[in-house]
């Protein structure tokens, strides 16, 4: 099972950096999300794939026609928070308020229920397990927030499941689609999205895709925008990860769509026999 997802953000939605920290800072930047998303939609439509687009509420409020266009072309609309803040830097109440606002905004635009969620930066951690309870309270059925390893923005290395599973909280079940990784003796490698995808040569990505029964991808419109402005105040390592491989990413993405069959989260959730899936219990 290979799942294709897009995190619908603009080029300046860079986490944990003062110059791009939140809505007050974002207003000064030129938006490029519509032109970049149109390019992705063209590639998807040409290949016949249907993706899940995890949409920022902040984007939806400013580009409602774009959200409707994505949905009209048969793609699933998921929630990616309202204001793109790291989960582990929020209280439960602040997270809940942000989530409710973003879901309501998307549902008002779509006229239908939003069932799928991904946290900004995969920033759910062992200490923020309350997130799953809040998601269930808000009607979310499918979550794609768990990164089962350490990373710059948290990660959840103690989450042992590497395949779709269910998370049980207070007797209620949430379907979880964790980030996929390839395991090597020296560690785990993420190859199916973001800077990792842009950095690796396509033959390596293709080989890892073939060897993986379950793949969760994640792309952003900015991943394919080689003309985007550069946030020069980023530390060197983050600047490299943010801008490396932009010129070749589009071609690699097109080849990926030609070489493999993908489905979105909604279809994956419908196709899995959840009666046999592992259950992770959180009190």
SSE topology sketch:
Blueprint: E1 2-3, E2 5-8, H1 23-26, H2 33-47, E3 52-55, H3 57-62, H4 64-72, E4 76-79, H5 92-110, E5 116-117, H6 130-137, E6 142-143, E7 150-151, E8 154-155, E9 165-169, E10 172-176, E11 182-184, E12 187-189, H7 194-199, H8 202-211, E13 215-216, H9 236-243, H10 246-259, H11 265-271, E14 279-282
Parallel strand pairs: 1-13, 2-3, 3-4, 5-6, 6-10, 9-14
Antiparallel strand pairs: 7-8, 9-10, 11-12
Helix pairs in contact: 5-6
Q: Mind summarizing the main beta sheet?
A: 5 strands, mixed
Which second-level CATH architecture applies? Alpha-Beta Barrel
Uncertain residue segments: none
Lateral arrangement of strands in the main beta sheet: 5-6-10-9-14
Shape: globular
How many angstroms does the end-to-end distance come to? 30 Å
Number of domains: 1
The DSSP helix count reads: 11
Q: Beta-strand percentage? A: 15-25%
In N-to-C order, the SSE pattern is EEHHEHHEHEHEEEEEEEHHEHHHE
The CATH class, by name, is Alpha Beta
Q: State the fourth-level CATH superfamily.
A: Glycoside hydrolase/deacetylase
Helix % is 25-40%
Look at the helices and sheets and give the structural class: alpha/beta
CATH fold assignment: TIM Barrel
* Chain-averaged pLDDT: 95
| Count of beta strands | 14
What does this structure look like?
It is a single chain. This protein is α/β, with parallel strands linked by helices and 283 residues long. It has one domain (2-282): Glycoside hydrolase/deacetylase (TIM Barrel, Alpha-Beta Barrel), CATH 3.20.20.370. The protein has eleven helices and 14 strands. It has helices at residues 23-26, 33-47, 57-62, 64-72, 92-110, 130-137, 194-199, 202-211, 236-243, 246-259, 265-271, and strands at 2-3, 5-8, 52-55, 76-79, 116-117, 142-143, 150-151, 154-155, 165-169, 172-176, 182-184, 187-189, 215-216, 279-282. It has a five-stranded mixed sheet, sandwiched between helices. Strands 2-3-4 form a three-stranded parallel sheet. A two-stranded parallel sheet has the order 1-13. Helix 5 (92-110) runs parallel beside helix 6 (130-137). The model has no long low-confidence stretch (mean pLDDT 95).
């Amino acid at each position: 099972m290979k799942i294709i997802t897009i995190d619908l953000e603009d080029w300046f939605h860079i986490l944990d950096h003062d110059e791009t920290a939140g809505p007050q800072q974002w207003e000064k930047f030129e938006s490029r999300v519509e032109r970049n998303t149109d390019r992705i939609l063209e590639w998807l439509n040409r290949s016949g794939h249907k993706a899940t687009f995890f949409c920022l509420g902040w984007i939806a409020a400013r580009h409602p026609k774009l959200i409707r266009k994505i949905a009209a072309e048969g793609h699933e609309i998921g929630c990616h928070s309202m204001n793109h803040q790291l989960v582990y830097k929020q209280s439960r109440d602040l997270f809940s308020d942000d989530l409710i606002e973003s879901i309501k905004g998307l549902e008002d635009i779509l006229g239908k229920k939003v069932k799928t969620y991904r946290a900004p930066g995969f920033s759910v951690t062992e200490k923020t397990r309350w997130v799953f309870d809040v998601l269930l309270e808000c009607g979310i059925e499918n979550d794609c927030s768990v990164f089962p390893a350490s990373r710059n923005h948290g990660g959840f290395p103690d989450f042992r499941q590497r395949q779709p599973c269910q998370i049980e909280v207070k007797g209620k079940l949430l379907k979880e689609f964790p980030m996929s990784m390839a395991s090597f003796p020296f560690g785990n490698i993420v190859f199916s999205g973001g800077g990792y995808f842009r950095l690796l040569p396509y033959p390596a990505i293709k080989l890892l895709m073939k060897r993986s029964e379950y793949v969760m991808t994640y792309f952003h419109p900015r991943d394919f925008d080689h003309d985007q402005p550069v946030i020069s105040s980023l530390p060197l390592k983050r600047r490299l990860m943010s801008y490396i491989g932009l010129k070749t990413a589009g071609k690699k993405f097109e080849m990926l769509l030609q070489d493999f069959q993908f489905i979105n989260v909604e279809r994956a959730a419908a196709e899995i026999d959840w009666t046999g899936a592992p259950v992770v219990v959180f009190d």
